Each structure stands twice: as structure tokens, then as C-alpha cells.
Amino acid sequence: MDRPWIPVTMTDGSFLQLSIKEAFAQANEIRSIDGDIPLQRFALCRLLLAIIYGTFGHLRGSGITDWKTLFNDGVETRNACDALMDYCDYYRNRFDLFDDTAPFYQVAGLHTAKNEVSGLERLVLDVPNGEKFFTTRSGEGLATMGVPEAARWLVTLQAFDPSGIKSGAVGDPRVKGGKGYPIGVAWAGHLGGDLIEGSDLWKTLILNYASADVFDAGDGGAAWSVEDDAPIWERQPLTEQAEPGFDQPMDRTGEAGSFIGPASLLTWQSRRVLLAHDGETITGVLICNGDRLKPQNAHRYETMTAWRRSNAQEKTLKMPLVYMPRKHDPARALWRGLPTLVADEQAGKEHREGPSESLRPLTLRWLDKVKIGDFPVRLHSFGVEYGSNEAVVDTTVDDVLDLNLTVLSSQHPELGGVVRDAVGMVDTGVQELRNLAGNIAIAAGLPVDGPRARAADAGYTAFDSAFRQWVQGLDSDTDTEDVRQQWSMIARRILFRLGDQIAAQASSRAIVGRDVTRRNPKTGASTTTHYCVALAEIWYRGKINKLIPDVPNEGENE
Description:
Distance between the termini: 62 Å
Largest sheet: 3 strands, antiparallel
Number of strands: 16
Strand content: 15-25%
Radius of gyration: 27 Å
Structural class: alpha+beta
Number of helices: 15
Helix content: 25-40%
Strand order of the largest sheet: 2-1-3
Shape: globular
């Protein structure tokens, strides 16, 4: 609470390390939370957001009015600042890393039968198993660790720790043969994390602070267990055993009652941990299993991820409806997933039947209700792709997109339709680009998979900066037909340019071409088609002209 450990970038561009109380007191002057790796920003923001929930509650009943007061007045108003400082002071003793009875995010007295302690590589998320290259720490840097850094990694571990066998804590009845067998990744590791960032830390925190009033009759009467939902420091100190009511039994996977509410999920203790130290530095760590929690059907409780319906999980769990977090694909830029985040133009219309195939984050649904209008934000995505039975970190996701909040809002759902169509145009156009590369490969008598994949990579790379610039200019004053036509012109130019580049790289063998005979397996009839660069270009241009008809005043002759 009092000592600096949270790295921040100030609005004037300077870098500081602040305590929790300092971070709140100066929240209007902080541009962003930083960290040793990008994932720490998400984990630390969730920690601070849990303090917001602890201080101001779930805003039930007068949620919109109270939320707008916090958002518009800022932390500098005496009421908000005093409330936060009072809350932090009240729970100050629960934020001591070395406390004898309730150390922060740890369990006092945690030990194994042989009193083993692991090396600090277990605490640092990005140290690969057996491969300590390309990591933030290595060699002697892992022998000891300063307390501020250890605190950051501790919060990150409780959010993103991989699955796998853990140390077996004495007193935990789940331990077998001295080992804690896998219970899954830490809670945030299940998510495709979406953080809505404002111009300063205060706006970022309040933009992600959803009221319990986000629910209405259309949600089947769903609501958080607001009486039980609380950050971990408001509860009794944990023990080495799983916590009754929080540890989710395997046979209750998918049951909503396990999730409690956002404050609990923001500070979920997926692990039981104890840091070894000499009073000045951290020398080791003990990591054991904590409270098991799987993400199926947490869509009314976890606020910071989008969701998708899973037919596979419905069959496995024998449940009629199961939603899973929509995790971010490391191979896909964030903007390619925008159609799942923008408001549906058909939202709320009576002709919609059955459950949705995808759900937007509760944070965005809440911002639909408060209607703050045009507001520039940065959509920041975070996530982890685990490998080897989720026991190691393969890849992390960190991507941003600058746009106006109204693009994501139901206040102007027609903008969402334009964005959805624009992304669809790119996907279809790149698919035709893949076909062009494949047809040229066929003309040369070469395998098609490699050329098609390279064409897709080139296509999405070429569209990346163009789309980001285009979507940043959309707001409530946008003429949707004008920007739709503008994007059509941009996409048409890029696709024709890329097609010309691929054709120009073709070999002389592809230019001459060859006949390819194929047999229809149903009719048995055979057809022969001549493949060459010229024909491939004609087919490609025909497809693009059909996808994006020529528009007036394009100013360029394809």
C-alpha cells in the first residue's frame, strides 16, 4: 500500500514506480500501468480494479448516476479520493508480503513434507522450461529478486500461472505422493482479456468498472452474488486447503454459482504461494494448488472478455448452453476480431430467436447503458497460449487498437455494421488472394500450401495499418455510406496491388502454364482446365470486382 512497486508511465511521458495509494492519488496524471512483461499491465489493472469494487461496491440501483459521477469528477474529487484512501488504510495489513499470518496473495506457513522451495524461475512467467533464452531474466538474475519485482510477478502468477504438477502442500488432502496434480491454468489464463484504456489511469479503471445494473430482464434475472462477492483481502486468510464455496468441483464445471462475482474473479487465488526471503530480497518460492475454477458459463460474472458458444462443451458437459471465453489468437491482429466486439445492429429486436453464438464483454455492455457518447479509447487485448497440456507458456498476446468508444457501442450500431462489413471484406479479399497464389502455383506444377499461406500473411500485413487508421476516424458524426465507400476504395487498391505483386513474381513456367485434368468423384466425368498466370489474374480480378464493385471517383485505374 505504501511502498513503490507498480511501474507507471505518467501523462508527461516520465516513468515512475508508485505504491497502490500513490497510484490512486495520482491516477489522473498516470497514462498507463506498465510491467516487466505486457501481461503484468492486465494483472495489475485487475488488482486496482478490485480495490475500486471494494471501495465503491457494485453500484446497484443507482449504478448509472454513481458511475457517471466517478467517471466525470475523477479521483481528485475529495469524496472519491478519501474513500479510496480510507479503504486502502483499512486493509493495509493484508498487503504486506512478509506478514506472519496473512501475507499478501500468499498462505502463511505453507510448506511441503520435505520443506522444499523452488527457484525463482517458477515465479517468472516467461522463463521457458529448460530454455532460458529470449526471457526477461536469466542466469544470476534468477538467484534473487527485489521485493517490488517479486510482488508484480506474484500478482501475475495468480492471474496466468500455467497448469501442471505443483508442489504438494502439507495439509492439502488433494496431494498424492507429495505432488499437487493439475487443476488447470490460473483464472485470467482462460480469458481473451480486453482492457478498455482511457487517456489516464482513472478513466481506464472506471471504464472497466461495470455496475451490477448491467443485468436486466433480458439476462434471465442473472445477478452477481453481491453480498458474497469481495476481493481476497476482505475474506479470511486462506489455508493450504481448497476454499469451500470457491474451489469448483469437477462435477460442477459449468455451473454459474461457482463464480460469485467480478471482485472475486479479479483476485482469484488459483494457487497457494509462499515467497522465501531474507528480509531484504526474495530467494525462492513455493507454489501449490489453489482454488480450481474452469471458465464454462462464467459469462455473467467475468467482465473483461468476450464469449463464444461451444457446441463441443455442451456435448461434453451434457448442458443445453455453454459459453467459453473467446481467447485471442496470437496469429490474428486484434482488429480482425472486432466483429465480435461491436454492438449488433439487430440487438434487442424481437425477431431474434435462440441464444447468441457470441457475447460481448460485460464492460462494453455496461458502457452501452451509461451512454457516454463519443470518447476516444484504446482497446488493449491480452492473453496466453499454453502448450504441452497447458503446463508451459507458448505465446502471449499483446495488441492495441485506437478507436472511438461509440464504434463499439449500441448507441450507433450502424457503425458496428460498417466495421463488421469492412473486416469481412478483408477476409474475403485475402481468401481470393490465397486462391490467386494457389492457382499460380498450380500453373507452375508446385505445391499450393506454401504460396497460399504467404499470400495470406502479405495480405493481412498490408491491411493492418490501413484498417487501424480508417477505424480510428469513425465517430458519431460519421456518414456510414461515405466511410463504407472510402474503405471499399482502400481495400480495392490494396487487393489489386497485392495481386499484381504476386503475379509479377511468377516463374516463366507458370506464365506458360499447363493443363490440369480433374475427375468428378460423383459423376465420374473428367474436365481439363488450363492454368497460367494470365488466367489466374483474370479469375482473381473478376472475383475482386464482384466483391468490391468499382466506385466513383476512385482516382485510380486498376
